[in-house]
């Protein structure tokens, strides 16, 4: 497995992605510590659409749950969550 430091990966990302497309696995290092792996996608799953189970109601007849009646400001919650990740 080839190893690459983050700075080199950033500088030559396209080159490394071409190697991954060819089937190589690349370990990403932060100094000497492995932090990630770039691996090729082995299997592409196709989206499959199935018919509803017998007896299932049509989608336009499924009852939705009642909306939650919370006195919260969604924007404030979002900002608090984002601040916690910095």
Report what the structure shows.
The chain is built from three helices and three strands; from the N terminus they run E-H-H-E-E-H. It has helices at residues 6-11, 13-21, 74-84; strands at 2-5, 26-30, 33-38. The protein has a three-stranded mixed β-sheet with strand order 1-2-3. A hairpin with a 2-residue loop joins strand 2 and strand 3. The longest helix has 11 residues, at 74-84. The chain starts with a strand and ends with a helix.
Fold topology:
Blueprint: E1 2-5, H1 6-11, H2 13-21, E2 26-30, E3 33-38, H3 74-84
Parallel strand pairs: 1-2
Antiparallel strand pairs: 2-3
Keywords:
flat, single chain, 3 helices, alpha+beta, 86 residues
Short description, anyone?
This protein is of the alpha+beta class.
What is the residue-mean pLDDT, rounded to a whole number?
89
Number of E strands: 3
Largest sheet: 3 strands, mixed
Order of helices and strands: EHHEEH
Characterize the overall form. flat
């Amino acid at each position: 497995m080839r190893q690459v430091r983050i700075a080199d990966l950033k500088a030559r990302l396209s080159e490394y992605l071409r190697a991954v497309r060819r089937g190589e696995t690349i370990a990403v290092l932060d100094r000497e510590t492995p932090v990630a792996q770039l691996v090729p996608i082995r299997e592409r799953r196709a989206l499959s659409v199935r018919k509803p189970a017998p007896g299932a109601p049509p989608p336009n007849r499924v009852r939705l749950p009642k909306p939650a009646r919370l006195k919260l400001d969604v924007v404030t919650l979002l900002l608090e969550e984002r601040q916690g990740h910095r």
